[in-house]
Automatic annotation (TrEMBL):
Its main location: membrane. It is an enzyme of class 3 (hydrolase). GO terms for molecular function: ATP binding; ATP hydrolysis activity; transmembrane transporter activity. It is a multi-pass membrane protein. This is Ribose import ATP-binding protein RbsA. Keywords: ATP-binding, Cell membrane, Hydrolase, Membrane, Nucleotide-binding, Repeat, Sugar transport, Transmembrane, Transmembrane helix, Transport. It is found in: Cell membrane. SUPFAM superfamilies: P-loop containing nucleoside triphosphate hydrolases. Pfam families: ABC_tran (PF00005), BPD_transp_2 (PF02653). The gene is rbsA_5. Its EC number is 3.6.3.17.
Length: 846
């Protein structure tokens, strides 16, 4: 039996599929039969069979942890199933990879956008979209066209880290739509979108389906399915719970399939109007993005914050949680609190749980208990029993699905991560709950539990403030709704006025409307170029140049020979060696790694050369020596990369082991200095034009070419993308392992070139030479502005950092200072660079 027959048979057997065959069946674009996937013995999908047809919007529903994201990851090629078959337009497509999926025409918009924050908006589009999309047209025009399709209006040169959550989601959707795919997967696409943006998206989805695209739409909002869905499949605990036409299924039937039980009501009963003193009072509160906000909450009330996205809601929530300073007055239970007091009094549930809500390297238990550690301590000692019991009880109340308390938080679905964030808030036992989009990406069953718990917290006397882009949610949950427009309160709704229609009407008809695109562009034009430069990777070049000039002038004032042709030549020769090695170090640091073996590799290379590149040696013998140096560099680069990517060594451990091994080989080959390098070779390598070594001129060319590759070519964007966010890079189809190994090989090749310069300088094979370049190269790279966290770097900055370091060493010798000052100056410069670069890059972007 064919896979299509298997799928139809499975659909026919479903108890909810009653009228499917009365519909003229469209051809199956992608079919899945018997798909099974497990993680560490726990099954995420079991025998899933489903078909996605051309021209249909096929909704996939299910609780958090039901297997929806796993299924989508298999379709997009990010994960491979343990068992099962996948077909695409009738032909076998297993196994799928991200590259193969993209070639077939499968495009996905992730719930957590695969946006690389260290790249600009334009670079994100260029690294994610196929090059053919840009052929024959101006790149910026294509990018603006792609973004305008989803109503996104932001500067192309700004870094993606400056985007709001909603803007990142729009950019993710724009990338998915840009290729006009045959299969379009949308995972919770409206989670952070306001009504206007959601309506726009629905229009795009209908248009895509009308053109024959098979749209797979994952959502927790049943109302959205009614608007655009044709067919629906429900997953529960990794199995297909049912499938059918949307028109044939009621909401109650869908809910029964999703949660496996009856839900009496989505929202718990609201509080009865209460008189008496307010337990939360906010007067004339103002800060970045909002001003003159006043409201109060009485015991038992839940206050909602509403408005078109980007009108100050999130900024207000952060101020209420004490995370951002604000002017005005906040009183809790009659006591006035400043923002520092609020940090301790309030529990904050951020909208972006991956960035602010969870600690990715911590376990589920640690994330839940993080804010309440002192409550589990006695006489300064933690009680693991108390902590464990409290976490277990809270998780049971919230129905958190986790493979275990010690599992990494990243092993949980997005909705279950959000439940852990709520669990932490409950364990803190705060005086105020501030929840920014608390149900984003949470299934209907879990939403019911969260609504119930927030209502119980409010009923117990703890004020609850909720910001939500879903007006229907605010209507059902909140007793009082504050509507913001352009950061100001334009309506306060209470009692029977808290209805979706009035909330939306107040937001969209306010006089204080959100800025228009023209206004935003006008604002960005004022100082925008300077702001973007200050936050660019090459901004460190300015202070480095200033320090270099100041040091040169000071050295000259103390000793006129400091700027002599002889000293300038020697300084630049030394700097050239360090710079070539540091350029290699820049690559691995941008990949979020490090290479401690660069120094010993340079030294070993010179030792190898000392056996072959000698006076009187034949040309073939010399070429053999250079060939061996090059071969050793490639082997070391491959070994380092393989140890890190496949043997799972940390970069420090792998390259430190290589450091010691290479140094040992150097001493085995030569116990001390020996084997003089050919004078003719050193003369060629040390040739000069005036005070400038030709090698330094070649270095400048390499820096320019390297910088061009880094900024203007696909391989450069890929390197920076992998270093910035490896998971996002993998999801957009980049081969992360290959890029990392290529990075280590490229580093070794730069060390090879640096070793040639070192060979010309010392003129002898010395096993003790080279090791100092490891620390010096890292220092030069950090001074140049490359981030130790990966993703951001510049060859120009590295070159200037290397020259500055060499200039410092020379100045210390000319000024008669002890070698101790080398380390003092290096340390001071690194601290200075860290403070300056962090300050510049920490400013919010337009």
């Amino acid at each position: 039996m064919s896979i299509a027959s298997n799928i139809d048979a499975a659909n026919t057997g479903s108890h909810m599929e009653t009228n499917v065959h009365s519909l003229a069946e469209a051809p199956i674009t992608i079919g899945m039969a018997g798909i099974t996937k497990s993680f560490s013995g726990v099954y995420a999908l079991t025998d899933v069979t489903v078909a996605f047809r051309a021209g249909e919007v096929h909704a996939v529903l299910g609780e958090n942890g039901a297997g929806k994201s796993t299924l989508m990851s298999i379709i997009s090629g990010v994960l491979q199933p343990d068992r099962g078959e996948i077909t695409f337009e009738g032909s076998t497509a297993s196994p799928l990879t991200p590259e193969k999926a993209a070639d077939l025409g499968i495009s996905i918009s992730y719930q957590h956008p695969a946006i690389v924050e260290d790249l600009s908006i334009l670079e994100n589009l260029q690294v994610s979209l196929p090059p053919a999309l840009f052929e024959g047209r101006k790149v910026s025009d294509v990018a603006r066209e792609v973004m305008s399709a989803v109503g996104l209006d932001v500067p192309l040169k700004m870094r993606a880290e400056g985007l709001s959550i909603g803007q990142k989601l729009l950019l993710e959707i724009a990338k998915a739509l840009a290729t006009k795919p045959k299969v379009l997967i949308l995972d919770e696409p409206t989670a952070s979108l306001d009504k206007d943006a959601s309506d726009m998206l629905f229009e795009r989805v209908r248009a895509a389906a009308a053109q024959g695209t098979a749209v797979i739409y994952i959502t927790h909002r049943l109302a959205e399915i009614r608007q655009i869905g044709h067919r629906v499949t429900v997953l529960r605990d990794g199995h297909v719970a049912g499938t059918g036409l949307v028109r044939d299924l009621s909401d109650s039937e869908l809910l029964d399939m999703i949660v496996g039980r009856k839900l009496d009501s989505t929202f718990p009963p609201k509080a009865k109007p209460m008189l008496g003193q307010a337990n939360l009072t906010v007067k004339s509160l103002g800060g970045h993005g909002f001003s003159d906000v006043s409201f109060e909450a009485r015991p038992g009330e839940i206050v909602g914050i509403a408005g078109v996205a980007g009108n100050g809601q999130t900024e207000l929530m952060r101020a209420l949680a004490g995370l951002d300073a604000a002017r005005g007055e906040v009183k809790l239970a009659g006591q006035r609190l400043n923002h520092k007091d609020l940090i301790h009094a309030a529990a904050f549930m951020p909208a972006d749980r991956l960035v602010e809500g969870v600690a990715k390297s911590f376990s589920v238990r640690e994330n839940a208990a993080l804010g309440a550690l002192e409550k589990f301590a006695s006489f300064g000692f933690m009680s693991r029993r108390k902590e464990h019991q409290a976490v277990v009880d809270t998780f049971r109340e919230l129905s958190v699905k986790t493979p275990g308390l010690e599992a990494k938080i990243t092993a949980l679905s997005g909705g279950n991560q959000q439940k852990v964030v709520l669990a932490r808030a409950l364990l803190e036992q705060p005086g105020l709950i501030v929840a920014d989009e608390p149900t984003q990406g949470v299934d209907v069953g879990a939403r019911f539990e969260m609504y119930r718990i927030l209502r119980e917290i409010s009923g117990a006397g703890t004020p609850v403030v909720v910001n939500s882009s879903d007006a229907a949610e605010l209507e059902g949950l909140c007793d009082r709704v504050i509507v913001l427009s352009k950061g100001r309160v334009v309506a306060t709704l209470t009692g029977e006025d808290v209805v979706e229609a009035k909330i939306v009407a107040a937001a969209v008809s306010a006089d204080h409307h959100a800025e228009t695109g023209a206004e935003r562009r006008a604002d960005r034009s004022r100082g925008g170029a300077l702001r973007h430069f200050l936050q660019s990777d090459n901004a460190p070049a300015v202070p480095l140049l200033a320090i270099m000039v100041a040091l040169a002038l000071y050295g000259y004032s103390q000793n006129a020979n400091f700027l002599s042709s002889f000293n300038v030549y020697n300084t630049l020769m030394l700097a050239t060696t360090l710079c070539f090695i540091s350029m290699g170090q820049t690559i691995v640091l941008m990949l979020r790694g490090v290479d401690l073996s660069v120094g010993p590799l340079a030294g070993l290379s010179v030792v190898i050369a000392s056996f072959f590149v000698n006076d009187g040696a034949s040309l073939p013998r010399m070429l053999t020596g250079f060939g061996l140096m090059l071969a050793v560099a490639v082997v070391v680069g491959l070994a380092n990369g393989s140890l890190v990517r496949y043997a799972k060594f940390t970069p420090i451990a792998a390259t430190l082991a290589m450091y010691m091994g290479l140094q040992g080989i150097s001493f085995l080959m030569r116990e001390g200095p020996g084997g003089y390098i050919s004078y003719d070779v050193t003369a060629i390598l040390g040739a000069q034009i005036g005070p400038l070594p030709w090698a330094f001129v070649a270095l400048i060319v390499c820096v320019i070419v390297g910088e061009y590759v880094l900024r203007k070519t696909r391989i450069g964007w890929q390197i920076r993308a992998v270093g910035s966010d490896e998971e996002a890079a993998r999801r957009i189809g980049l081969n992360v392992n290959r890029l990392n190994i290529m990075g280590y090989v490229a580093t070794a090749l730069f060390v090879f070139v640096g070793a040639l310069m070192l060979m010309a300088q010392i003129g002898v094979g010395d096993p003790q030479q080279g090791t100092s370049y490891t620390l010096a190269s890292i220092t030069a790279v950090v001074l140049g502005g490359t981030s130790l966290r990966g993703g951001r770097g510049t060859f120009i900055g590295t070159a200037l950092g290397a020259v500055l370091l060499t200039e410092i060493f020379t100045a210390i010798a000319f000024l008669g200072l002890s070698q101790t000052y080398q380390y003092v100056f290096q340390g001071a410069l690194i601290v200075f660079a860290a403070v300056i670069y962090t300050t510049l890059r920490g400013r919010p972007q337009a």
